[in-house]
Amino acid sequence: MAFLSSFDICASGMSAQRLRMDIAAENVSNMQTTRTEAGGAYRRKDVVLESYGTDSFKTALRSASRGNGYASYSSGVRVADIIEDDREFKKVYNPDHPDADEDGYVSMPNVDVLKETVDSMSATRSYEANVTALNAMKLMAQKALEIGK
């Protein structure tokens, strides 16, 4: 039933937004990390999302107008990749730091608290929008079942 696939779409969106919030939290928690397993300072991470299994609105409308219905059962959003930000590290003068170079500068992670705050707020709002859509569909399903009483 195509109506029930709407729940899967919202669930995939909520999962993707939760991962965005997790990555933003990871970035903030590592904003003072000057040494990683890979060597060097921590690099900011970002999530790349992509849609899958969706037809264009034109295709869906044409299919629905012909009475075929619209049954895209496997559609939603997924994480395509988690990429590292390649911007340069911030240089901070601290000659007493163990990771300081010969000039006394330490390479600090390229994490900006303001950007991470905005990203996490955006992910939170998107998550809430998916929850609202999910609740609306749940209410519609309940009302449809009440019709049959």
Q: Trace the largest sheet across and list its strands.
A: 1-2
Compressed to H and E, one letter per element, the order equals: HEHEEEH
**For the residues shown, what is the average pLDDT?**
87
Question: Which parts are unreliable, with pLDDT below 50 for 5 consecutive residues or more?
Answer: none
* Beta-strand percentage range: 15-25%
According to DSSP, the number of beta strands is 4
Q: What is the CA-based Rg, rounded?
A: 23 Å
Biggest sheet overview:
2 strands, antiparallel
How many helices? Answer: 3
Shape: elongated
* Portion in helices: 40-55%
- What is the terminal separation in angstroms? 21 Å
Classification by helices and strands = alpha+beta
Short description:
It contains 3 helices and 4 strands, in the order αβαβββα.
Mind explaining what this structure looks like?
This protein is α+β, with helices and mostly antiparallel strands. It has three helices and four strands. The protein has a two-stranded antiparallel ribbon with strand order 1-2. Helix 1 runs antiparallel to helix 3. The longest helix is centred in the C-terminal third of the chain and has 35 residues.
What layout of secondary structure does this protein have?
Elements: H1 2-29, E1 45-52, H2 57-65, E2 76-84, E3 90-93, E4 105-108, H3 113-147
Antiparallel strand pairs: 1-2, 3-4
Helix pairs in contact: 1-3
Which key phrases capture this entry?
two-stranded antiparallel sheet, 149 residues, alpha+beta, 3 helices, 4 strands
